[in-house]
Structure formats: structure tokens, C-alpha cells
Amino acid sequence: MDDALIFDETPDAGLQMRRLLAIMTRLRDPETGCPWDIEQTYQTIAPYTIEEAYEVADAIEREDWRALEGELGDLLLQSVYHARIGEEAGHFDFASIAKTVSDKMVARHPHIFGQESREKSASQQTEDWEKIKAAERAGAGEAGVLDGVALALPALMRAAKLQKRAARVGFDWPEIGNVLEKLQEEAAELAEARDRLGPEEIEEEMGDLLFVAANLSRWLGVEPETALRKANDKCTRRFKVIEDDFRAKGRSPAEASLEEMDAIWNKVRAADKAS
């Protein structure tokens, strides 16, 4: 192993990519590597891969570009990690991974790298992209419309993708009003299940309600995962104001009444609306 490469900080993209690959090779060396890194597998690393992707999204949401640089590096490390495990097992290596995605991008952009005209609208290019992806799925033996939507996606995101796929072949409501009516119907069924049925039925009705809510998001052009994340952030921020208010009074929210907490919440909510 070339130690000079591992410690080379020259700001060259190609060199730094080789450096990162060399570092991972050293970490995974069975004799001289890091014990923790040597023990890792696809399965044990996968949760970190998912976590790093969300941390990238978080940095973007906060518009923290310095943090984004670091988070993108952490996400790149995940690809390098999986690539090294794959190389050790004889499945693939980083070069084959990069070649595969490069080939895919060239094939999916015939209007840039091929003979097709570039004079298309963004919507037409999206439609063509989906046709190419559908052909790729068919070639991989995924004949069903909903085949290939990853099971490991967050449930809300997966619901939106499933509904988008189904809508492409006409399995969709005629207009948004129908979706709103269905949402109200599912809410009523959930209320009935709460009063008359057991935990399993309540869970099923809750799932149906969330599934329709994801469909409504698609109709409104809203990414449901993003919308819910922003709602979580808003709740966190507003509740922190409640905590700070009571801390200043020498109290905690646990010692307060719902009415007291609600009054502060509504004050913050009104300020948000006015800003």
C-alpha cells in the first residue's frame, strides 16, 4: 500500500478518489486493518448509508453548505465501503459501479449523448426518462408496474412512488376532489374502527388514511416526506419555545396545564403566520 497516497492532500478530484479507495482498502485489510471496519458487512453498513442520506437532506434543508460538504463526503464513503465489500466478495468494485451508473446516464439521455433532438420540454424529457426506466425494469425481469419500488424506502415515500407508478397506467382518480372525498371517507372509517373494532383493524384504517394522504400530496405536487419533515421541525421549534418559556419561570411543561401550553403554542403559531 502506498502510504504517500493515503496522506496526499492535493486537491485533485481523481487523486482524492484514489486516496479514499486506498484508505478503505487499508481499513479493511484482514491483518493490519481496523477491527471494527473488518467486521462490517453490507447488512451492518446499510443503516448508516440510509442515515447519511438523510443527513445530506437535512443539511440542504438548513442551507448549511459547509455541513453539506461534509455530509456528501460521508455519503460517498458509504458507496466506497459497499464497493470494497463487493470487491472482496468478487461481486463488483468501485470502477464497475462507476461504469454502470455512467452507462446508465448516457443511455437515459439520448437527447444529450445520442441522436435524439434536445428540443424537448422538461416534462417530455421526464416522460421519456420513465419509458427508458420501464424498459430497463422489463429487461431485468420486473414486468409488473409496481415492481422495483424499494421495500426499504420510508413508508410514506414508498406510498407516493407506488401511486405515481400506478397513475402512469391510468389507475388514478379523475380529479383532486375525489381524493379529498376519499380522505374524508378513510377518516370516518378510522373513527368507526376506533369505537367498534380492535387494534389490527385500527392499524389498517390508519394505514389507509396515510396512504390516501400520500396520494393527495402527489396531486398537490408536494413531496409528502419533505412536508412531514418540515412539520416535524415546526413542532420541535414551537415546543422548544414552550419549554423555554416555562424554564424562564422556573417551571417545566410537565408542571403546566394543557391550557397554559396551548396558549404559548397558539402565540408562536400566530407569530409564524404573521411573518
UniProtKB/TrEMBL annotation:
<dbReference type="InterPro" id="IPR048011">
    <property type="entry name" value="NTP-PPase_MazG-like_C"/>
</dbReference>
<dbReference type="InterPro" id="IPR048015">
    <property type="entry name" value="NTP-PPase_MazG-like_N"/>
</dbReference>
<feature type="domain" description="NTP pyrophosphohydrolase MazG-like">
    <location>
        <begin position="179"/>
        <end position="239"/>
    </location>
</feature>
<dbReference type="GO" id="GO:0006950">
    <property type="term" value="P:response to stress"/>
</dbReference>
<dbReference type="GO" id="GO:0046052">
    <property type="term" value="P:UTP catabolic process"/>
</dbReference>
<dbReference type="GO" id="GO:0046076">
    <property type="term" value="P:dTTP catabolic process"/>
</dbReference>
<dbReference type="InterPro" id="IPR004518">
    <property type="entry name" value="MazG-like_dom"/>
</dbReference>
<dbReference type="InterPro" id="IPR011551">
    <property type="entry name" value="NTP_PyrPHydrolase_MazG"/>
</dbReference>
<dbReference type="GO" id="GO:0047693">
    <property type="term" value="F:ATP diphosphatase activity"/>
</dbReference>
<dbReference type="GO" id="GO:0006203">
    <property type="term" value="P:dGTP catabolic process"/>
</dbReference>
<feature type="domain" description="NTP pyrophosphohydrolase MazG-like">
    <location>
        <begin position="40"/>
        <end position="113"/>
    </location>
</feature>
<dbReference type="GO" id="GO:0046061">
    <property type="term" value="P:dATP catabolic process"/>
</dbReference>
<dbReference type="GO" id="GO:0046081">
    <property type="term" value="P:dUTP catabolic process"/>
</dbReference>
<comment type="similarity">
    <text>Belongs to the nucleoside triphosphate pyrophosphohydrolase family.</text>
</comment>
<keyword id="KW-0378">Hydrolase</keyword>
<dbReference type="Pfam" id="PF03819">
    <property type="entry name" value="MazG"/>
</dbReference>
<dbReference type="GO" id="GO:0046047">
    <property type="term" value="P:TTP catabolic process"/>
</dbReference>
<protein>
    <recommendedName>
        <fullName>Nucleoside triphosphate pyrophosphohydrolase</fullName>
        <ecNumber>3.6.1.8</ecNumber>
    </recommendedName>
</protein>
